[in-house]
## 1
Amino acid sequence: MDKISFNLSLFSYLVASVGYFVYLAYRRPLVSTLAGWAVAFGLVCHTVTIGIRSSQTGHGPYTTSFEVALFLSWLIVVVYILTEWKYKIKDLGAFVIPLVFVVLLFSAFLSKETTLVPESEVHFWLTMHRTLSIMGYAAFSIAFAAGIMYLIQEHQVKTKKLGIMYFRMPSLEVLDDLNFKVIMIGFPLFTLGFMTGSIQNTEMNQPFFSWDLTRTLPLVVTWLIYCLVFFGRMVVGLRGKKAAQGAILGFVTVVGTYFLHIL
Amino acid sequence: MISTESNLVLVGVNHKATPVEIREKLAFNQVKLEASLEHLVSCPEIVENIILSTCNRVEIYARVENSDQGIQLLKDFISDYHGLSRGSLDQYFYSYRDNQAIEHLFRVSASLDSMILGEAQILGQVKDAYSTARALSSTGLVLNQLFEKAFNVAKKVREETGISERGVSISSAAVELAKKIFEDLENHSVMLVGTGEMAELAAKHLISYGVKTVYVASRTYERAIALAQTLNGCALDFDTFKEELYRADIVITSTAAPTFIIHKEMIEQAIHKRKNKPIFLIDIAVPRDIAPEVNDLENVYLYDIDDLQNVVNANMEERQKEAENAMEIIKEEVTKFNNWFSTLDVVPTIIEMRNRAEEMRKNEVDKTLKNLSHLSENDQKAIHQLTQSLVNKILHKPTINLKKKIQSKDGHVYLKAIRHLFHLDD
């Protein structure tokens, strides 16, 4: 059952990705509507998959690498739908949904084994740590998509070569604003996730903070990048291209960190 | 007599082949338009008609008894009504019928036939022409359906192609760029440096899109004040505008200065003061007012007059390409409309109905006569005549009534019913 719903959601996101690309290139309103429905259907199946998985394991979807990927991609879709609803940027789907598809496709190759988490204080901090971090990552992924769109649009306006994307994509101000807003939400979540992770370490009688080259250091780098983007805007007006580049770089380190964790 | 034919014709002149001196003579103002519609619809040859008169075209769409006669009649009418000789106008007239007339209307409504491809005004004009005609009851089933369809097609073209989305004038291209940088122009400000006519035009365009704060700087302070007054903005002293640059999101320069008056350092300072908020510089002065290397600065976008002209040219080309996509949509819709339209044509249906009856009659009579070989040739002929007149009598009333009913609003329902009851589509 969970396999069926998993495959259905994967397929729906593929259909939606293709649909959004077709819309980006050929502008057929019907295609965009269909892609929207495919995302909605994908999300329903995705939710079912997570529900079944959680009832099997008895805890939320954040213990194994598979669960993290499953949960992260689910949250990206949720954040995407909220953003789309608020900002009405139709073409955002062409940049976000393929990402969701890739994350989910990748998770298909991960081990589906379940791990038992002991009922304890550790469990609480682990839940908090993973949930908050993944929520932060989902927000960052939207900032990543907005950043890419910003760079494409900025390049067109700057070089005065106004291609098809110039007309399709939203203004620089909207993209910059979106980038700022999602990082404003994502960064505190990520920071809290980071802190609760440290608390979990102490609960497990490990040092509060460890300079582990593969685990902690990349996280610190990620945190520093978003910290710069976040406070840079407030203090010195770091915006536009630099903020977009920061959001992209930040997300690349997030992906890198994830791979370092599962290797 | 009531028409049973659905001949659609169109006669007109437009900007492509007809000079403005002729077009202006042929235009119908509102009063003339109404009188003409009423006159035409009272002609027995004309069933329905709509007159479209704009500065670029005069066209009469009509449903007539006979296409050839209808076209001649409309040409005569246009010439006579404006007191011009037919001979002098014949070279300008174009006329289309049925399919071509439908396609032409769809192209006109979707602005594919306009002087500026994709401009939005024409659709409104076609709508006005239609509602005027409709109010005077000079339209009926076919033209109503045709024009409503044309509005849908125009909407579809606008939504599914980019034909209208690219600005094709310098100031509209500038506004478009401003909207791609700032989105909502309402909370943004514009500064005019120099009071050139083009700059004023661009500023007015920006104001119409919501820009509220306007600064005007000019070497002649009085001119700055005068322009500031018309634009509801505030005048700046030319010596101080450089310090005030940071206040403006959009700067339009149009001075007659022989060298650059805005340099990289000035914009660097302004952008620093603005905490990197973007600034859009439009330099429409020749020689240029702003040093081109300003564009190298981050969050600064500089367009000079040539850049804007290039954008306009590219947009024109792009509209041309989109027009091809639009034509595909139109061709598709013409076929769809034509399918509906052809069902309206009652004559083929009546012929088919009669043929079907005749076929049945002949079969049955032949079968019977085979067994009655003792009958003389004359007797056999009499039987044929009898059955023929029987069939004719039976079909007479339905034929007459169908011809009458087809003129009514739900005429096609009768047609459909007849085709269904007599199995004509099997």
## 2
Amino acid sequence: MSAHGSLIPAHHPPNPQPLSRRALLGTAAAAVAAPALLAGCAVGGDGTPDQAEGQKNAKNPLGVAEDAPLEVVIFNGGFGEDYAKAHEVMYKENFPKATINHSAVTEIGKTLQPRFIDGTPPDVINNSGAGQIDPGTLVAQGQLADLTDLLNAPSLDVAGKTVRQTLLPGAVETGSFDGKVFILNYAYTVYGIWYSTKLFNEKGWQYPKTWDEHIALCKTIKAAGIAPWTYQGLHPRYMSWPVISTAIKFAGPQVALDIDNLQPNAWKSEGMRMAADAWYQIVRDKYILEGSPGLDHKQSQTEWCNGKAAFISCGSWLENEQKAVTPAGFNMAVAPTPSLGKGDKLPFEAVRGTAGEPFVVPAKAKNLRGGMEYLRTMLSMKGAKDFTGKVSSLTIVAGSADGATLPFGLDSCVKVLKASGDKGFNWVYSTYYRKLERNLVDAACGEFFSGRIGPAEFLDKCQRGADEIAADPAFKKYKRTA
Amino acid sequence: MRHGKYPLLAAFLLPALGVYATFVISPYAQAFFIAMTDWQGLTSKFNMIGFNNFRYLLKDSYLWNALWHNILLMLLLPVLTIALGLFLASMLNVGNGKGRVRGVRGSAFYKVIFFAPQVLSVAIIGVLWKEIYNPRSGLLNGGLRAIGLDGLAKTWLGDPDYAFWAVLAVMVWANAGFYVVLFGAAMQSIPRDIYEAAALDGTSRWTTLWRITLPLVWDSVQVAWVYLAILALDGFALVQVMTRGGPNFSTDVVGQRMYDVAFGEFKFGQGSAIGVIMFFLTLSITVVALRLTRRERIEFS
């Protein structure tokens, strides 16, 4: 539909005919009455693109057209854009004839939505940030290229291995929808509970391994005049992470599988009940910094950095995010959630490690092969090491952080991951159904951790949210088996 | 004479009209069309689903919740803002009694103070007040604690019982200044001798405001009412910056709902349907408000 048409004189000015008021109104009315024609402007027109393709050979396993231009759009957020420029230089070393069009924006969705509609998306997109395009919808609408070819291609610089074989366990699954991989989550993120080792060393506190130790320590911390906990009050979903983690460690990964698959009453499983009951203790006994529910993520994290609270739940971006306000020698470290008890299915060391920072290649990209090759460049050992060095974050390429000097917090992430080994776990409902975590579970956590509702109502509220999503045909449903 | 007139007129009118049609009328028309589809905003593919979006929204408790907040805003924001604006304007312009018609001491200074929020963008106002409402280091709780009113210190934006009122207060604060100036200008145009006559008759300040000033600035009040009612139907920008509708949807407004549904859930059809609902609401509110506030004009003679 490219009918911009019939739109009053605008496109054929100036009209020499005398124009009466009545005629004018008539035209305007026609314009309103014929929206179908006008609609072309916002929702119209995509052609089938000519996709560049070259000769496949050992050096060029994906069959990239050597001279095809490559367009890369980077989310200009916590990681900046310099790391991408370095990857682009590496790509150009292998394909000197290609020109690379690089841009970095903060609002990925608003910038690129018209280009998806138009059928002319860029070749690589770092679909990240608060303004990202809902990944579930992108997949459901068939807008993303299947990355299987890339994963089965040989690694650029790890001899004898395919790209897939060079990645950390679980990394590919986070971008899989119904068995196909559409999203490459490049950075490896650890979710856990953060504390200042300096504070703990000074006071002689030990990070608690069991729930009872945790509560006992909270008592000690409170007695010392510090609030044991704070959380990102206006974005309370951060607290859903330790609750779900506790449940998974107690009852096993099935808890996460059921939640992701929208199983009936998944949020009210025994594991979730035990976990919610346990976490309610820090609310009931007032172990949370006063006023936390009214703080946003930056405000609460800053209170924590200033030593007003001992624990906070966050992902491994915390260290970078707080760089400007963290006192020298604060030495933040991450740790897994405490075990509920001896009966836990997973050991204390088990932690939620998952791939984040999504990269995609649109299905209609002009240089789709080049887009995948660019991801292959990112996933080379050289590309990954460069990323870790530049932005202080781990990548999904196994061993890419070896030998690098890491900041204190990131170093603790590496250690925690190593200890967790193959016991690590994850959930992806937040990717399948963004709204469920960002709005519904978020609201439930807000009520729960500010003490307005108890654990049973909290789980009811989460379940109601999940049921809403399950009942809404507008959301395509995904299933995973592992 | 007549031959040359129309081409000339057209040459001036048509380009402007074209721009208006392209950038105002056409988007409206498209919104109506998109509201009838299940368009997800990423491809050019969609299905016509008639009024299904509206049927869904009719039963959508989130939308009703948001709409209720807009209605509350619409009832309270104009009343509070106009009352405050009238009071301050009359103090600044005709507040000083004793037979002389002028404002209280230092009124020029106050005018600047009251008008100040008007020059700030909504985003800045939102961020500013977010910090003021910060329960730990914010000015508001700090002030309350400093004067020993610890019991009144709340978590404000973090508490569903207070968040809405906190946002409403910011709206009133941000808008009152403009109406102080608007009403002030209207009051300046009231002939002084009316006040002098009233003063001779010994009317109290309250009677003067109620019986003389208010009827004579009624036109301005009417305009303010419509303006504020439309503003109350929106409220999106401030809510987006301060609370994003939370906690627990306690500050959700229809504009925020539209944004979440379209740009968060990528249901552009349904989002457009919310937009269409807002369009008709705003239109009818305006018509109703203009009817209700219509009164005989008072002519100064």
